[in-house]
Amino acid sequence: MRLDNAALIFPAIRHRRWVNVFRVSATLTEPVDPAVLQRAVEELAPRFPSMYVRLRTGVFWYYLEELSAPPRVREDYAYPLTLMQEKELRSCCLRVMYFQDRIAVEFFHSLTDGTGGMIYLKTLTARYLSLKHGLEIPAEEGVLDWRETPGAEELEDSFLRHSNGVTLNDREPNALRLRGSYEPDFLHLTTGVIPSDALVEAAHRHRATVTIFLAAVMEETILRWQAEDCPDRRRRRPVKVTVPINLRRLYGSRTLRNFVLTLNPGVDPRMGDYSLEELCKVMAAQLAAHGTPQEMAGRIAANVNPQQTPLIKAVPLLLKNPIMRTIYKLRGESKGCINVSNLGVVRLPEAMRPWVRRMEFIIGTQRSYPNNCSVATLGGETYVNMIRNIRESELERRFFSRLVELGVPVAIESNQQATKNGNRRTKN
Known about the structure:
This protein is of the alpha+beta class. The protein has two domains: 9-154, Chloramphenicol acetyltransferase-like domain (Chloramphenicol Acetyltransferase), CATH 3.30.559; 188-297 and 335-427, Nonribosomal peptide synthetase, condensation domain (Chloramphenicol Acetyltransferase, 2-Layer Sandwich). 34% of the residues lie in helices and 22% in strands. The strands form three sheets. Strands 7, 8, 9, 10, 11, 13, 14, 15 and 16 form a nine-stranded mixed beta sheet that branches. The chain has a five-stranded mixed beta sheet with strand order 4-5-6-1-12, with helices on one face. Strands 2-3 form a two-stranded antiparallel ribbon. Helix 2 packs across helix 4 (114-133), helix 7 packs across helix 8 and helix 8 (210-229) crosses helix 14.
């Protein structure tokens, strides 16, 4: 299977500082039975052929090859999102893990995005609970019928289908780079557990959605921090937060592969100071203006058109890799400071709800983003995961403290001083 348009870049930009996987997880109300989980993984193989694959290297492009046997589940180890090395990618591009009461799946970015990953996790968890407890769980709320044959639309490259052929010129200034003391052997994960109603209320007070509110608070946090470090306003850099846009909602796609593009709403602090209310307004306006189906189709075309050029097709992969790395360095991360990626409210079939107490989404650090933020909500709690590959915890301290100042209570969990797979929990 060919890589989809968004997936093409990921094998080429592999780097020890860039975490090439993301994680979704379900925490149950009882310990996980690994034997039953293994059976569930095996039974889902025909339903998810685009997930049960390994990465192969061709003459002109990388491609994905279906596995001859489903992967083996393993006990969770070390810390979340350990780098998926080339040897592992040649064997399998996803990991299914368990620890105590948690089921976690980590995906190489070329397989799918957060929405596709969550659909797989929901279906896997549903099948596990059916096997373990004999539950009848309907195919609804993102749970697929594991006995069905996958439809062609689920396996399509929706970027190719929805490109309008007209390239959008999306030049924009580079953003501030966050820095810190790099730590090569550990990813620090700090989770803010927030009552969903308090978060929604705070967002509504600022006339914003939860995603816009969290992104605006993150932007305000970085702006204040930069002002302290750089008193000379003329030397300050634009602060922009990268927000992924789920294109399935714009185009009605049902693909299980990647179908996300990012926007970088932000402000230039050289123009003056911004209140949080103003940041919410600016962010909402920029996302509304640039997140239209028409403009997104132009952005898709900007990525798709070069891929389809006969000259580019004829260039051997050995030469394509440095070209793609250069393009990614210039355009891929330089336009934003940090991701705020919100999967939104995770909904489950009624039969599953008593058995699942927590669902989470964690994205990794990037080559030049030492920090990243991802969000998911289940029931009455929102889980805000802040991850970093640097020693300093200043950004998450400032961000969560600002939420508390705004009347949003936050319970903090961290793996910073934890033993293997353990958590140290404190509360603000």
